[in-house]
Amino acid sequence: MTHASVTIILHEHRALSAMLRAILLLLGEHRRRGTLPDFGALRAMLFYVDEFPEKLHHPKESRLLFPKLRGHSAHSDGVLDRLDRDHERGEHAILGLEHALLGFELMCESDQHEPRRATFETAMTLYVRFYLEHMHIEEAQVLPLAEAMLGAGDWAELDDAFLANRDPLTGFDAVAAYQPLFKTILGALPRSSSLGSALEALAGAGPPKYPWPR
């Protein structure tokens, strides 16, 4: 049986994965061309990551799903502890990324141009690797454990909670307030083959993929 909360988690993982990979692909393309990225679009992308995955998706997991799975085994509790720490780490990391991006933007016409670019690109790459691995662990270990452990009452509670607030990039209409944000993000992504898979995932098509960025 497929549960609504599991489907939502997978779709939200897909949207976050696509957004993170799109940021790296966008940065790589501008570095290869020797041009500056669209800083407004990058700010919008980081705002999305902070606004939805960090503030909606991860709290639902830590506050609703993970407590229901604790006590199964020492190993699974250790995995859940690590994932909870990841969620806390992510909240702080996004602030560091936003600061590094601001430094890159403000210093882009100075002799600090390349060091600031490199600082942001390195921090962004580490963040992407960190969260792709995090999502992989959730899908490979936590969701199968939930399917094995939880009963109908647990799933009904989780489904109601996950359906109550969903990421607008997961295949249903965004509220009007966020439509300009998504238009800014998608408008900054060139229609090239290298970005095709990210655009497809942002549109809600295709299976979740977690390739390691180069």
How would you concisely characterize the structure shown here?
The chain has helices at residues 4-33, 39-69, 74-106, 113-149, 152-164, 179-188, 196-202. It is mainly α.
Structural class: mainly alpha
Distance between the termini: 37 Å
Q: How many domains, in number, for the residues?
A: 1
Helix content: over 70%
- CATH homologous superfamily heading: nmb1532 protein domain like
- Any idea of the CATH topology? Four Helix Bundle (Hemerythrin (Met), subunit A)
Counted beta strands: 0
Order of helices and strands: HHHHHHH
The main β sheet shows up as: none
Q: Low-confidence parts, pLDDT < 50 over ≥5 residues?
A: 193-201, 203-214
Beta fraction? under 5%
Total helix count?
A: 7
Q: Can you identify the CATH class? A: Mainly Alpha
User: How would you state the average pLDDT, rounded?
Assistant: 81
What would the principal axes of the Cα set say about the shape?
Answer: elongated
CA-based gyration radius = 18 Å
CATH architectural group: Up-down Bundle
Write the layout of secondary structure elements.
Blueprint: H1 4-33, H2 39-69, H3 74-106, H4 113-149, H5 152-164, H6 179-188, H7 196-202
Helix pairs in contact: 1-2, 1-4, 1-5, 1-7, 2-3, 2-4, 2-5, 2-6, 3-4
3D structure, described in words:
With 214 residues, the chain is mostly helical. It has one domain: nmb1532 protein domain like (Four Helix Bundle (Hemerythrin (Met), subunit A), Up-down Bundle), CATH 1.20.120.520. The protein has seven helices and no strands. The chain has helices at residues 4-33, 39-69, 74-106, 113-149, 152-164, 179-188, 196-202. Helix 1 packs across helix 5 and helix 3 packs antiparallel against helix 4 (113-149). It is elongated.
